[in-house]
Write a structure and sequence with these properties.
Blueprint: E1 2-3, E2 6-7, H1 8-13, E3 19-24, E4 26-39, E5 46-59, H2 60-68, E6 73-81, H3 84-95, E7 99-106, E8 112-119, E9 122-129, H4 137-150, E10 156-160, H5 169-181, E11 185-189, E12 203-204, H6 208-215, H7 230-243, E13 247-251, E14 257-261, E15 264-269, H8 282-295, H9 300-314, H10 325-333
Parallel strand pairs: 3-6, 3-10, 4-8, 6-7, 10-11, 11-12, 12-13
Antiparallel strand pairs: 1-2, 4-5, 8-9, 13-14, 14-15
Helix pairs in contact: 2-8, 4-5, 6-7, 8-9, 9-10
């Protein structure tokens, strides 16, 4: 794939020298793998015989894990408990070389855990363990101080808001102001039910349903071609007014992605995936690669194409997966 300023290979190689700070809700993803051979006599549900367990950083921590595939310069900022899940998550991040110096550990905080039970490559059920709570003023002020200490060394900031309470409007305003004052790229993966404003963000990445919800509009069925989807384009126009961002990257599942730019015509990049096994984590991959591409000097259009290619890789894998630099280069070479 050729970009305006050279090959995708050259652009991806440029990711390695970039430094990214990921801010947001930190979680632990637990996978319980097993076999199903019968239905329970107690209820019409499958009995899963467990064959293995695996753990991965989840939420904003998975975004950082995706960034780490391309550069060693990644740090994460958020909060986790001192409970066993928090200790496991901190160990996983450290083992992958992700800087956790901006992570708050609170003995009164319950680390969010998402447990997926998978049998025959199919998710049987997901169990969430979490406790949502509004952060105290003291915790928010500490988050601001940690941001002050971390932002100077970053080329870009990613906020991954999963609606668990870490990112408040007060913190969002501080992040936006700090990024603007220091000339940092700021991208946001928003949660539709928090209604946070992101003034002057470089880009915001909702999916189709989130875009309509955040715009206060009723979702409509997808339209082909995407650039003729009037309701979707209307939702994007409304979001520019609500969020105040420069770009919107709307992920559309099997339709690919739609890039909306305040100063350019809408741009659609179609889905590249040949097989889809698991869509969990695809959005994390998209925001990670999109942000890295912008930090490496790509245009928003080029960044969207690279993010789309990366997403096509991870949906072809089972579990909370990532795309490597080699895989992304190979995928782009086939276009």
């Amino acid at each position: 794939m050729q970009t305006k300023h050279g090959s995708a290979r050259e652009r991806i190689a440029g990711f390695a020298g970039k430094r990214v700070l990921v801010i947001g809700d930190l979680m632990l993803d637990e996978f319980i793998w097993g076999r199903v051979s019968r239905i329970s006599p107690e209820a019409p549900v499958p009995v899963v015989n467990v064959t293995g367990e695996s753990y991965y950083p989840g939420g904003a921590a998975n975004v950082a894990r995706n960034v780490r595939e391309f550069t060693s310069g990644v740090a994460v900022m958020g909060i986790m408990g001192t409970d066993p899940a928090g200790q496991r998550l901190l160990h996983l991040l450290g083992a992958e070389g992700i800087d956790t110096s901006a992570v708050q550990q609170d003995q009164n905080f319950l680390t969010t855990v998402k447990t997926r039970i998978v049998a025959r490559n199919q998710q049987v059920v997901r169990v969430d363990r979490e406790r949502k709570e509004a952060p105290s003023d003291e915790r928010t002020e500490r988050s601001k101080r940690l941001l002050d200490g971390a932002i100077g060394g970053a080329d870009a900031i990613i906020v991954a808001d999963y609606g668990k309470g870490y990112v408040t409007q007060q913190l969002a305003d501080y992040i936006c102001r700090s990024a603007s004052e220091q000339g940092k790229i700021l991208t946001v993966d928003p949660h539709p039910h928090t209604s946070l404003r992101w003034r002057n963000a470089t880009a915001i990445k909702p999916n189709r349903a989130e875009a309509f919800h955040a715009a206060g509009l009723r979702p409509t069925d997808p339209v082909e071609p995407v650039l003729s989807d009037g309701p979707l384009l209307g939702a994007g126009k409304a979001l520019f007014g609500i969020w105040g961002a420069r770009n919107l990257l709307i992920t559309l599942g099997e339709q690919g992605m739609l890039l909306l730019d305040r100063e350019a015509p809408p741009y659609h990049t179609p889905a590249r995936a040949r097989e889809v096994f698991d869509v969990s984590g695809a959005g994390d991959t998209a925001i990670a690669v999109f942000t890295l591409a912008l930090a490496a000097g790509a245009s928003a259009t080029e960044a969207a194409e690279l993010a789309n290619c990366a997403s096509s890789i991870v949906v072809g894998k089972l579990g909370t997966a990532t795309a490597t630099a080699a895989e992304l280069q190979a995928a782009c070479a086939q276009l």
